[in-house]
């Protein structure tokens, strides 16, 4: 079998290609003689300066490797590279479909790597995991980490060569019972700390060990804010990666979070002048000072002393110091507390003080801090990094007690400097108390309001941190490299060509500019990605609860997205922007697109969904607040939006979230999606028979069941899929019913059903992508025919569809988006007439001005706006997402038919890459 190599020459070729194309950094594979030459690449186009271990996923063709196949990695010289591998998914025949792989930490990452079958090479300093009476001991080279299974600490300690360099690591949450200070009521504050209720060892090395910790935040008898924390240890690493998730289960009218963070204790043994604090700055900058400075004094201790302290190294012997300084060291103020506060995405400040009861001194500031802090001395210390520090604020990094025997190092995910977190609904109901009144409100603001339904109870949030246990203060360049790895975590990914060859994730193809029309479509696809990347920056779509999402609709009069207009505000996955971004990444390998898609996946799978409570497993429709709209549906929590990220990265948290969805159809017994406008024959609430849409509901469940089946091989999920398929195909009008009565006990649709119910939403929430994958795995001929029938006839001329169904059909929306259904049926039936119809549907000139090949992008500045921005008056995330997905699938399924349309192609507005 040919070894798959990532070569330096390939990286250079890839980078050059991306520069010519105006793309950030595509991981584009080269081929030689028809065989893939590359397996995977560094996402950003070149190896990082250092990393603390990386993990990624690799797909394999069906039947190529048995389920227990082992793998090894080889370097450029053909020598083995330590690798840990595990299965992520299986084909129906039991062979490997996806595998996860982990590399050890490295300060000199290789630019060449291949993954081949074989016995893996263990690292020379392999991770060793021991089970203790009270937890786990994880040894990584000279480091020994103790992880308890109960108590207040996530990590009890870290020792280095037997010397303790890190004390307890715990979670902390500060709360207050009012949003703001009141004139007549005292404000009560409280401090909660982590209470670990259990810990499980998920992987034990030799390259990577993973511990999953569950717990709550506790103060006295009250326990709330349940959390899941995973700790990742890599061979040769000095750090633990922390993935921190919590669920809000409080009362938003009483529980206002003032601060939530991760806090570590750091022993301080060195003289005050050999203790140091560091904060990462912008563009490779570093703020570096000592607890007791030896520079800038009236008397000079000597160049050797000053240079050593600036470098963070041990100073020469004190007896050699100028006595005018040595004898007055105690008169130099010792700074014990330090803070870097990033209050918003545009600015941070650094302050310090000599202790409690004394004033803070402003030290420095900047715009966007990478999120790294260090405290320690020549005998050891600790650093912490918070990814997305300036994007997901308000955030803060604290060092406290650096002049004492033990310092604390805290990464605040929500900064205590900011106003308390206020999750209350944003208006008082406006007098709407009946469904009729609420539907009237929907008509004007597009917001589906209902009292009590806009609750944050059950939403979640995930953050990623890195915590180092260090033997000494790192050098400045090392700290800068550490900060860079926090701000832009190194990633290994498979190349687009490698992914395409295995044919995972359905119908997509590599970019093709071989004809004028295809080039115009490709340019427009790239231009729309550029547009949204830049809108995120220009519109400041950042923040603790917002980072990762984009807005739904645009208000050209205000030159502003409709952030405050009901259902037009945050997109919340409406019409699948998640899939548009992920399929765009699959095709191009662009690093900027990956990170947009990653942020959206993290956000939408956590914040937009309910993880506990009566609405568990459902998400919230688009709105001013991510949880504010009263429409709760599985189309938002859809596993189809998460699975690509999971398989590309082997991310356990997203794996947990998808697994939690396999029983979410039961939530339909508590949440009736059509409760405000029920149909006459809707089943009574609370029973096992419910109303379910084929696309927005059942297809969302399909994605979760399909993923769980391929991850585990458990046939009950396949059986549940086929039960639904068989029963749906037996209905008189199959998919043209739009939905039906569904039995949550069996997964079957029940009842004959006669009504035609075509919905423009049924196929635009991942149903197309899910079916494209699923029908390659499951053979139910009657259902396959039913799906192809729907794809063929949805966009058919009205008279033809009426003749086919025997009834008059009303307006069918989103015809351009549904051109991909026509293209799918054309491909499956090998029907050139259908292919030509799909091409005309997609290239309908009426749509060029709306999400099509013409851009009206223009700059807006001066008094018309707060800050200079760019706008296209027709910007719509619905339209862009569906146009992008339709373009990708038409280019894949009917490219020749597109070329044959023969229209005059407008000039696309292709935007160049910006730093």
Automatic annotation (TrEMBL):
Domain PcRGLX/YetA-like central beta-sandwich stretches: 130-483
Alphabetically ordered keywords of this record: Signal
Pfam families noted in UniProt: PcRGLX_1st, PcRGLX_2nd, PcRGLX_3rd
Signal in keyword set: yes
Stretch forming the signal peptide: 1-21
Ranges of residues in domain PcRGLX/YetA-like C-terminal alpha/alpha toroid: 489-898
Matching PROSITE patterns: TAT
Domain PcRGLX/YetA-like N-terminal RIFT barrel: 39-115
Name the UniProt record assigns to this protein: Tat pathway signal sequence domain protein
Source organism: Brevundimonas subvibrioides (strain ATCC 15264 / DSM 4735 / LMG 14903 / NBRC 16000 / CB 81) (Caulobacter subvibrioides)
């Amino acid at each position: 079998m040919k070894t798959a190599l990532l070569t330096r020459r390939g990286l250079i070729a890839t980078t050059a290609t991306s520069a010519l194309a105006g793309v950030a950094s595509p991981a584009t594979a080269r081929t030689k003689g028809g065989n893939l030459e590359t397996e995977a690449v560094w996402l950003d186009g070149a190896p990082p300066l250092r990393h603390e271990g990386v993990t990624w996923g690799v797909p394999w063709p069906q039947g190529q490797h048995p389920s227990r196949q082992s793998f090894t990695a080889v370097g450029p010289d053909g020598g083995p590279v330590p690798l840990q591998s595990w299965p992520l998914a299986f084909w129906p025949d039991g062979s490997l479909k996806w595998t996860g792989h982990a590399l050890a930490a490295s300060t000199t990452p290789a630019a060449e790597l291949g993954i081949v079958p074989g016995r893996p090479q263990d690292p020379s300093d392999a991770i060793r995991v021991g089970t203790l009476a009270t937890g786990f001991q994880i040894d990584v080279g000279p480091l020994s980490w103790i992880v308890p299974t109960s108590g207040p600490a996530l990590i009890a300690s870290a020792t280095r060569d037997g010397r303790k360099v890190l004390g307890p690591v715990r979670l902390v949450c500060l709360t207050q019972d009012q949003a703001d200070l009141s004139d007549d009521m005292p404000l009560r504050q409280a401090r909660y700390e982590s209470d670990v209720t259990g810990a499980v060892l998920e992987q034990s090395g030799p390259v990577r060990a993973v511990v999953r910790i569950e717990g709550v935040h506790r103060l006295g008898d009250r326990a709330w804010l349940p959390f899941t924390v995973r700790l990742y240890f890599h061979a040769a690493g000095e750090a633990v990666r922390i993935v921190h998730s919590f669920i809000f289960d409080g009362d938003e009218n009483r529980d206002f979070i003032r601060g939530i963070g991760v806090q570590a204790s750091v022993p301080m043994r060195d003289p005050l002048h050999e203790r140091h604090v560091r904060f990462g700055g912008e563009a490779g900058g570093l703020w570096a000072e000592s607890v007791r400075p030896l520079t800038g004094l009236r008397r000079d201790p000597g160049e050797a002393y000053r240079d050593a302290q600036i470098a963070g190294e041990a100073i020469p012997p004190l007896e050699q110091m100028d006595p005018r300084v040595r004898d007055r060291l105690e008169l130099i103020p010792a700074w014990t507390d330090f803070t870097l506060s990033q209050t918003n995405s545009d600015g941070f400040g650094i302050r310090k003080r000599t202790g409690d009861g004394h004033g803070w001194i402003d030290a420095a500031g900047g715009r966007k801090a990478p999120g790294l802090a260090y405290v320690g001395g020549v005998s050891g210390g600790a650093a912490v990094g918070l990814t997305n520090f300036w994007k997901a604020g308000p955030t803060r990094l604290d060092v406290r007690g650096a002049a004492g025997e033990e310092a604390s190092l805290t990464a605040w995910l929500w900064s205590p400097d900011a106003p308390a977190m206020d999750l209350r609904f944003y208006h008082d109901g406006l007098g709407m108390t009946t469904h009729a009144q609420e539907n009237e409100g929907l008509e004007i603001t597009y917001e589906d309001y209902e009292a009590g339904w806009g609750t944050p109870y059950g939403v979640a949030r995930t953050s990623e941190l890195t915590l180092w246990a260090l033997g000494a203060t790192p050098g400045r360049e090392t700290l800068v490299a550490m900060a860079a790895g926090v701000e832009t975590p190194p990633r290994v990914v498979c190349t687009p060509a490698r992914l395409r060859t295995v044919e995972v994730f359905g119908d997509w193809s590599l970019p093709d500019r071989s004809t004028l029309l295809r080039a115009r479509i490709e340019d427009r696809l790239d231009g729309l990605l550029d547009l949204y990347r830049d809108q995120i920056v220009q519109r400041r779509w950042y923040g603790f609860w917002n980072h990762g999402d984009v807005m739904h609709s645009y208000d050209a009069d205000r030159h502003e997205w409709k952030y405050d207009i009901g259902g037009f505000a945050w997109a919340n996955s409406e019409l699948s922007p998640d899939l548009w971004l992920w399929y765009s990444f699959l095709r191009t390998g662009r690093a900027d697109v990956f990170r947009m898609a990653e942020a959206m996946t993290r956000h939408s799978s956590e914040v937009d969904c309910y993880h506990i409570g009566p609405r568990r497993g459902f998400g919230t429709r688009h709105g001013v607040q991510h949880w504010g709209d009263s429409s709760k549906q599985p189309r938002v929590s859809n596993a189809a939006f998460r699975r690509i990220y999971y398989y590309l990265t082997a991310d356990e948290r997203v794996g947990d979230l998808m697994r939690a969805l396999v029983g979410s159809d039961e939530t339909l017994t508590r949440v009736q999606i059509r409760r405000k406008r029920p149909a006459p024959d809707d089943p009574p609430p609370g029973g096992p028979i419910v109303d379910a849409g084929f696309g927005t509901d059942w297809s969302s469940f399909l994605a979760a069941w399909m993923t769980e089946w391929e991850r585990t091989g458990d046939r009950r999920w396949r059986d549940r899929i086929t039960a639904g398929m068989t029963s749906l195909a037996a209905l008189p009008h199959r998919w043209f019913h739009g939905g039906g009565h569904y039995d949550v006990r069996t997964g079957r649709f029940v009842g004959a059903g006669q009504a035609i119910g075509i919905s423009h939403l049924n196929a635009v929430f991942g149903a197309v992508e899910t079916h494209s994958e699923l029908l390659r795995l499951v053979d139910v001929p009657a259902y396959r025919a039913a799906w192809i029938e729907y794809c063929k006839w949805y966009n058919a001329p009205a008279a033809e569809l009426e003749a086919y169904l025997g009834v008059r059909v009303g307006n069918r929306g989103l015809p351009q988006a549904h051109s991909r259904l026509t293209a799918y049926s054309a491909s499956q039936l090998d029907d050139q007439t259908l292919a030509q119809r799909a091409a005309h549907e997609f290239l309908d000139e009426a749509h060029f001005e709306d999400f099509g090949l013409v851009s009206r992008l223009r700059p807006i500045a001066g008094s018309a706006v707060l800050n200079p921005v760019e706008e296209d008056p027709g910007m719509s995330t619905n339209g862009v997402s569906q146009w992008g997905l339709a373009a990708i699938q038409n280019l894949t399924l009917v490219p020749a038919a597109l070329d044959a349309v023969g229209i005059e192609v407008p000039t696309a507005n292709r935007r160049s890459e910006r730093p």
